[in-house]
Design goal:
Chain lengths: ~625, ~230
């Protein structure tokens, strides 16, 4: 127990409550009575890590097994990290306060490319070598999962194995295999990994060799030791019956998402061409209204939360959305629980639905047209028309809303300056609409907030071949946008462009980038997604020192026949489908959503009986 | 013992039952800040499904007040908060139901009708243990005793109104030091309450500054909250 050593440090750091555990519903077991100990790590701070639904599910799932104990680990903030290093305190699990070296497994959730240096830093802080090949036979197995694991190549130097896709089944299979190997008395990590590679969805990168052409593109990806040529991601076929936590840990301090969360659906029927989640989580599956109600009530009762939110990629696309909302709103109103509904789309946002939503809250209203002109919205297959935006805004304004937030992206493939200026023009038309309404709220002005992100091409999307805009191109477009705003009713906001450039490099990176991540970490990079810590110059140096360029990864158009670093991973949707979609995008052709017409993406192969239930 | 008199307030024609909960805050729970504690207790009420009274007005919230907030990192032996119920439920039952759903380290000791006002609080007793790297307990005690023996103990107190220079000497109503195996243990009585509130760490931090070393706090505990007439706050 590190308690004695920790105690004198805790009053010297900001928010010591991040580092002590003991929250309501956190699970403490007798370590002598469990066979397998699992550290579930989130490579960002407590407030962000504690908000992540996937880890909550896995925490409860693993702890439901009597022979396992899962604990939580977050990246200590630099003030705490400095004190830990100074006082030889290794990174520890929040439940037991035992060092990570005492665990069997150390798992990382990969949500964002810019958290990768924190993984190296956390392993190092635990007293482990971040390089997998240097770790000893008896060191814990380091694995990772989450959306970024779909192209985990840049992390191959550091991670022993990746779980691809949904974790509820593969996690338990991995633990079973581990226990079998441990029980044999002759523990050989390599033998375990070789056999683990036979579990569907398990990717053991050390069992694959990658060779390159002279120009830096990939020549071949070759499996060895019997590892499969293609690793197919896992999905839960019967999503309505999948394990879901009866309760959440209730943090003391305020975290980013501090509420009961219901997972309404997995997958999305839309097929927006920029959206990685829209492809990698296919096929779409939904929970029944009754299941959701039961799970929501259990969560609120056991946590004391007074707020509940519905999580999915597009909640209004739930096949029984009206019935679901009716039932959930009936419960939340009776129990005095605030309901929040993110991920509502503009196009099927009926007056009736809006009326239901406004029964529960009247804060801001958010739409994501993503692009400023109809042509570009067709290019990205965001099936939202201006008429729909106007119609929904009108309903919202007449319902008493005075502020609308619009989300856009800059740097989309096939974007022209006309599309860029279309963003502010659309914002202006929403402002004009407000003032044209006789029934607008009296004596109140309107605020249209325009938030512009930089587009980052991602693997397993139709835009995986596309060149990302360079920093200079984006800055030029931003400047054009700024100059096109002529009213104070519109406020423009955007994020740091450089982080998007780096995100673009790592997202479509290959194994050679591991060296660059290592270099960056060695130079002190960590918490790269935090503006106060992000150091672009160090990253430029780190990439150059690895003998690589940012341009090769970010701003290069790939040819149709190029082998992608992630081509040995099968997420369900086929490369041929993605290429078709890219070509349709170039002609601004819309593809109907899954409910209207099957586009033949290939994800149905994963579904029960080979048929999607949309 | 007979059940103490209930305190009932009538709000908008309905009776509400006033309670003061006395609780212990110890172990990891001492790192729950005052703001976080408010949320923690509010959620415990929710889980216990107690008919707690909400404030009236535009933004109703659970009525919950603390007579004397406890600083971050302090344990408390007998702290209190006030709340109201809209139904008459026996104090023992409320105590039991709350303790069943409280997080580790917060224990409700008993529920009483509020007797004194927060303004009656005048001082508090504390116990505090600390050490300093590279300083033996013996040496530490000698240095600390020398520091507190001075005529004036000047330090800066940070408040909402900004930093303010103060003299701690008159605030040391009682200050006894004792060596332990790893540092020194202080028993202190200091002004507390709405008029003047001096936390013991302010004194020890001032000592740390005077010798140029940061203190390593081991235990800080508030033992007693005392009214102007010398009786316990209850």
């Amino acid at each position: 127990m590190l308690k004695e050593k920790l105690e004198p440090l805790l009053l010297k750091v900001q928010k010591p409550i991040r580092y002590v555990g003991g929250e309501y519903n956190s699970i403490v077991k007798d370590k002598a009575a469990v066979k397998t100990r699992m550290a579930l790590c989130f490579p960002d701070n407590y407030e962000i890590g504690m908000s992540h639904l996937g880890l909550k599910i896995l925490y409860s799932l693993i702890n439901a097994r009597e022979d396992c104990w899962a604990e939580r680990v977050y990246a200590p903030w630099p003030d705490m990290e400095a004190l830990m290093r100074e006082n030889q305190i290794p990174l520890y699990g929040l439940e037991s306060l035992d060092p990570l070296t005492e665990f069997d497994f150390i798992g990382f959730s990969l949500q964002y490319e810019l958290s990768y240096t924190n993984i190296l830093n956390m392993l190092d802080l635990a007293g482990l070598d971040p390089i997998a090949a240097n770790r000893k036979n008896d060191d814990p197995i380091v694995f990772a999962g989450g959306p970024c694991a779909m192209n985990g190549e840049p992390l191959c130097d550091f991670i022993d194995c990746f779980q691809l896709g949904e974790g509820e089944e593969i996690m338990l299979e991995m633990i079973d295999l581990y226990q079998k190997h441990r029980a044999s008395g002759k523990w050989d990590k390599k033998a375990f990994l070789r056999e683990a590679a036979q579990i569907p969805g398990m990717y053991v990168p050390s069992l694959y060799e990658v060779s390159y052409h002279q120009d830096g593109t990939i020549a071949a990806i070759t499996p060895k030791d019997g590892a499969p040529e293609k690793i197919t991601k896992r999905i839960i076929k019967d999503f309505d019956k999948v394990f879901y936590p009866e309760t959440f840990i209730v943090p003391y301090t305020e975290v980013v998402h501090d509420r009961a969360v219901l997972e309404v659906m997995r997958g999305c029927i839309r097929g927006c061409r920029f959206c990685q989640a829209g492809f990698i989580y296919r096929p779409v599956r939904a929970k029944s209204p009754d299941t959701l109600c039961r799970q929501g009530k259990a969560l609120c009762d056991s946590t004391g939360y007074e707020e509940m939110s519905l999580a999915s990629l597009s909640t209004s696309d739930h096949p029984q959305v009206e019935e679901m909302l009716d039932k959930i709103i009936d419960y939340t109103q009776e129990a005095h629980i605030n309901l929040s509904l993110p991920s509502l789309r503009v196009d099927n946002f009926s007056g009736e639905l809006l009326e239901k939503v406004s029964r529960v809250r009247k804060s801001g209203l958010t739409f994501a047209p993503e692009a400023g002109t109809q042509r570009l919205r067709d290019v990205i297959n965001k099936g939202v028309t201006e008429e729909e935006i106007m119609r929904t805004s009108k309903i919202a304004f007449e319902g008493g809303y005075t502020s609308v937030k619009l989300y856009f992206m800059l740097g989309l493939p096939f974007e022209t300056m006309e599309d860029v200026l279309g963003i502010t023009a659309l914002g202006q038309r929403v402002v004009d609409l407000y003032y044209s309404l006789p029934s607008k709220p009296k004596g109140k002005g309107v605020n249209v907030g325009i938030s512009v992100a930089t587009f980052v091409p991602k693997p397993f999307t139709p835009f995986q071949w596309a060149a990302q805009n360079t920093y200079d191109e984006i800055v030029e477009k931003q400047s054009a946008l700024t100059h096109s705003v002529t009213t104070r009713k519109i406020s423009l906001a955007w994020h740091e462009v450089r982080t998007s450039v780096l995100e673009g490099v790592i997202a479509r990176g290959d194994r050679r980038l591991g060296k660059a991540i290592w270099n960056a970490w060695k130079m002190g990079c960590k918490f790269d997604s935090w503006e106060e810590f992000f150091d672009f110059d160090k990253w430029k140096q780190a990439i150059a020192d690895a003998g690589l360029t940012m341009e090769f990864y970010a701003s290069r158009e790939r040819s149709a026949d190029e082998i992608m670093p992630w081509d040995h991973i099968d997420v369900g949707v086929s490369k041929a489908f993605l290429r078709r979609e890219y070509e349709r995008a170039s002609r601004a052709e819309v593809t109907p959503n899954c409910r209207e017409k099957c586009a033949g993406c290939g994800a149905n192969r994963l579904a029960e009986g080979g048929v999607c239930r949309v | 013992m007979s059940e103490p008199q209930k305190k009932i307030t009538v709000i908008e024609g309905k009776p509400v039952y006033d309670y003061r909960a006395f609780y212990r805050k110890e172990g990891r729970a001492k790192y729950i800040s005052h703001l976080d504690l408010y949320r923690t207790v509010q959620r415990a009420f929710q889980r216990a499904k107690l008919p707690v009274w909400y404030t009236l007005g535009f933004n109703p919230h659970v009525y919950l007040t603390y007579a004397l907030p406890l600083a971050l990192g302090y344990e408390g032996v007998r702290e209190s908060f006030d709340f109201r119920l809209t139904e008459d439920i026996p104090a023992e039952e409320v105590t039991r139901r709350l303790n069943e759903v409280m997080p580790e380290g917060i224990v409700i000791l008993e529920l009483l009708p509020p007797a004194r006002k927060a303004d009656d609080i005048e001082r508090a007793d504390y116990t505090l243990e600390f050490s300093m790297k590279g300083v033996s307990p013996e040496e530490l005690k000698a240095q600390f005793d020398r520091f507190t023996a001075g005529e004036v103990i000047e330090t800066v107190k940070h408040s909402k109104k900004g930093p303010k220079a103060i003299n701690l000497k008159p605030a040391l109503l009682r200050c006894v030091s004792k060596e332990t195996s790893r540092g020194i243990l202080l028993s202190l009585t200091l002004p507390a309450g709405n008029r003047e509130n001096i936390n013991p760490t302010l004194l020890v931090d001032a000592f740390g500054k005077s010798v140029g070393t940061e203190p390593d706090y081991r235990n800080i505990r508030r033992d007693r909250i005392i009214c102007g007439d010398g009786s316990d706050f209850r």
